[in-house]
Amino acid sequence: MNKLVIAIIVSLGLASSGYFVGNGIKYFRNFDRSVEVKGLAEQTVKSDLATWSINFAVSGDTLAPLNKTISQNQKLVTDFLLQNGFKQQDIQQGTISVIDNWANQYGNNNEKLPHYQISNSVSVTTSNVDLVAKVSQNAGELVNQGVIVNNNSISYFYNSLNTIKATMLDQATQNAKQAAETFAKNTGSQVGKIKSASQGVFTISSPDGAIVNDTQNISKKVRIVTSIQFFLN
Fold it and tell me: A Pfam family in this protein (predicted)?
């Protein structure tokens, strides 16, 4: 076999190899064509649990009468809650706390303060969030009864996230697919099956979305963002 024939055979082999390699890359790229998009789902929900803590205090120079007064105040607060529709099992009594103002080593005017300050609290935990919102507006009645309220705090929570997770994830997936279809349309492609998906974190925020883990509002916004890759055909 002369050199000319050998050269022709080698040339044909290289050309054939290049053809298949080129088509293999092209096929691989077509098979692996995909687009990654974000999917968003949001839903407004209503809190299903509320905690209301009412703290009160008395001050004076003799412990015994102060202790008696703080106990009376605790009963007044408890009766107020019961009379306004709360259940006894939802009400929790706090524990007494005593501060000796004169024992404070800071400042020069401690002896001008009452010797003692005694504080206590009553709290309620209930699923009746509307009752909490309504009755808390009338907390001034306690002041009229002589209760010195120094902290009146309410927190609202949403604990039923598991009941809406599946629906919201489906909504986020559909939202992502719409975005992928828009992209595919502009590139002359069609959206295929899901290649991969990554679920984000569910967040519960204020209705405007500004405060994450909000506890001040009865209404809340639940939000989920997913990342999904779709094959393009």
Answer: SIMPL
Residue 53 CA to residue 193 CA, distance in Å, equals 52
Residue 108 CB partners (closer than 8 Å, separation 6+): none
Domain boundaries, the chain: 33-46+160-232, 50-156
* pTM exceeding the 0.85 threshold for the entire prediction: no
Exposed/middle/buried for residue 28 (C-beta within 10 Å: 0-12, 13-18, 19+)? exposed
- Compute the average pLDDT of residues 67-89: 97
Residue type, 171: Q
CA 212 to chain centroid: 6
**Residue 228 pLDDT more than 80?**
yes
Q: What CATH number labels 33-46+160-232?
A: 3.30.110.170
Give me the pLDDT at residue 80, please. Answer: 97
| CATH class held by domain 50-156 | alpha beta
Instruction: Give the span between the Cα atoms of 158 and 129, in whole angstroms.
Output: 11
